[in-house]
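INFO worker-7 received task bundle
INFO bundle size: 2
INFO processing item 0
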Amino acid sequence: MQKLNIDKQTLIFSIWVAVLVLELFLLLPFSIGRIVILNKSIAALERDLINVQREWPRKEEYIERKQNLESDIANLNSKFTQSREVSKLLSFISSSSKEFAIEVQAVSPGKLTDYPGSEAGEYQYLPINIKAKGQYHNLGRFFDFLQRSEYFFEGKELNMYYDYPYNNLEIIFSYLIKQENVQEE
């Protein structure tokens, strides 16, 4: 076997070339991939910064809108009552009708049924059938008043019959009642 005579400079050069080839095929692709990931992150941060700069002047508007929504939610939550207050609700309907010159002939609550559950809590649905007599415009104002009242009414059915000089009205309102928490002992 013949002995290889490699001088010191050739050996150093060969090692240097081997290291550069390894770096070219192993480290360079990893570095390029890392640069691509960093560029994507920079682009996302730039988009976020542009959005913040664009929306920042409207911050006060958003805060005001949030406060309005919170007050609306509190107002709607205050419209729900407990089942023990149904008689107060029926009394409200009867007494309110007098302000509109409406003669309420009957106010009868229907059967209390469970309302499909929601994130806001458990509720029950109470249909209320109202039969009343009055002038056409007064009946319309009364209907509108009930829907805008402090109670959570929603008109489900409205029938009007003409009976000179008055109109007869049959309304079925739906009313949601917040279900009371009953703890078992």
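INFO item 0 finished
INFO processing item 1
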Amino acid sequence: MKKLSALFTAAIIAFSMALPVSAVKHEDPAVAHINTADAPEGTVYTDILIKLPTDDESYTDFTQSPEVCKDGAKGGTSLGITADSEIAKYSEDGYVSLSLHHKKAGMLCIYSDEEVLKMASSKIDSCDFIDLSINYGDFKAAYIDGDGHILGVTSPSETAYSMDTPYGFNAKGNSLTFQRHGAHPRAIAIGIAVSVLVIISLPIIIGLIISKRNNRMKASELANKTKNDQ
């Protein structure tokens, strides 16, 4: 009986520990790492676009220009993008520059191998990239030259999930992928369902084993009593 109880306890602990696997390696959803491939010639940086209405409480006419940053630095040399630049005035199909028009967007930092954009987000007032995708839908990306001219715009983003990458965007030619860190919600739901099923089934299985064991013991006792009566 003790062995069965230990088995039951170990199984519950194992499956309970398996549930938060996606949270073992934490990545901040308020920080987006932007990677670019197959961009138009002359592209200096890639700007993320969202469908942010001008009457939205988070909209502002202009925030700050992106900066070219040395690796590891949090600031650098301004590109000189202004409210009069083409990217700042862009609003096709309702899409505008996230870094230039959202009040909680930090300065877009352009590094040698990627760009990093951080949103001002907190537990009390959350505004990370998951929130943005829920509130405003698919993202787009615009390829921008050094003077703020738009060289091309991607199609709406598709969402991908990975345990090995941080939150961010992969722009490649006409396509854009919104990369979310962690397991796919469907995989998490299936894992939880399987875990719950196993936990619910274990007592039943253990009960059947105990019942079968008791029946064998009763049969053995009855056989011994019959033998003694003879």
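INFO item 1 finished
INFO post-check item 1: Confidence is low (pLDDT under 50) at residues 18-23, 183-191.
INFO post-check item 1: The chain is about 35% helix and 25% strand.
INFO worker-7 idle
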